[in-house]
Here is the input.
Amino acid sequence: MRQNDGMTLIVKTVTRISVWMILLYGIYIIFHGHLSPGGGFAGGVIIALAFLNVMLAYGRKFTSDWLNISFLHDVEAASATLFLVIGILGVSLGGAFLANFITKGELFALLSAGTILPLNIVIGIKVGMSLFLVVWVLAGSKTVKGE
Here is the structure.
């Protein structure tokens, strides 16, 4: 990594510390979306912003070394497939697409919403990876001046 890549040392240091807290907060929002405001979409956006923070602070080269971008593509594609699998399990076990086939637990407990929690997790992964990969592709594109 060249010294000029990314932003200043202060921004890099703050990012190195804060990115893990941002990721943890995104995971918290995903896991508690059926109990409080939030859910898969909001948590996924927060996770994408954590990765974007790294890319802005350290530069594109460091981010491609830190994250396996092809693996993120695979995870993003697999999350859509997993969403369909959960939906089809609802058809086969519950009678309708995305029907709840998991028994409900104790009210206001983490495992109290049947299939909503697994769907929040899958949607969080899908949204987080999709948004980051869109920004990744846009950051790598070159624009032609004069057009």
